[in-house]
Specification:
Helix content is 21%, strand content 42%. It has 260 residues and is α+β, with helices and mostly antiparallel strands. A hairpin with a 4-residue loop joins strand 3 (65-72) and strand 4 (77-84).
Amino acid sequence: MKKFNALFLFILLVAGFNNVSAQKEFKEGTITIGITDLQVDDPQAAAMLNMVKTSTISIAFNEKKSLVSANMMSGMVQSRTLIDNNTKASTTLLDMMGQKSKTTITEADVKKLEKEANATKDEMPDELDLDYDVTYNKKDTKKILGYDCFRADIKVSPKDAKEGQVVNMVVYVAESIKFPKSLINGVNESMAQFGTKFDLSEIPLEISVNMANPEDPSKKVSITLAATEISETIDAKTFELDDTGYEEKSMEELMKSSGM
């Protein structure tokens, strides 16, 4: 189940993140992504996944800042992460069933974390020891909320074939939506720290995944995440975080208190 959970979290975070389009590019706005379809054969897995069925991730961005907001378990868990697109410094407000914490990561912290991650990547848990291959097919197109998208196939496979299953994802991306490079590169760099090469250069507007439960391959899971709302305008106040009532915690304290 640990590998199943890790893979699902990865899918959510990839959704959580860029010429067939003649539409104008937009470099600021808000995109909300949610689970639009969920089918599970395994009752145990269904109970777990149904808890996050209403989860959404909203990405608000302009050239200078990005705000990634997650609403999970019908609002029982909410997070907002404000990111400086240039320095990668961030502030995260986390509300876990009323327990509110604030964690700030400075530019110096980012550099330290990247150095530590590179030094310890060989010690990462097995469920993250994965390879990712991305193949684009610009002849396969569809419109999502009015935006021309083309297909990319992502193959996720364990480096050791005995350690798990191969998972295939079908995603549709829009080149006319230009996310800050920090959001895209952040995913690619994180994967590189685990010794994998991840070359997706767009954030998908739709992801469809069909996979088997690692603990029982006869039972299937089908998940589709897609953009449910897109706005090409953004209010500057979107990037103003109200941290009233939030307790300041270091990253180490936050991870310890949340059991991460």
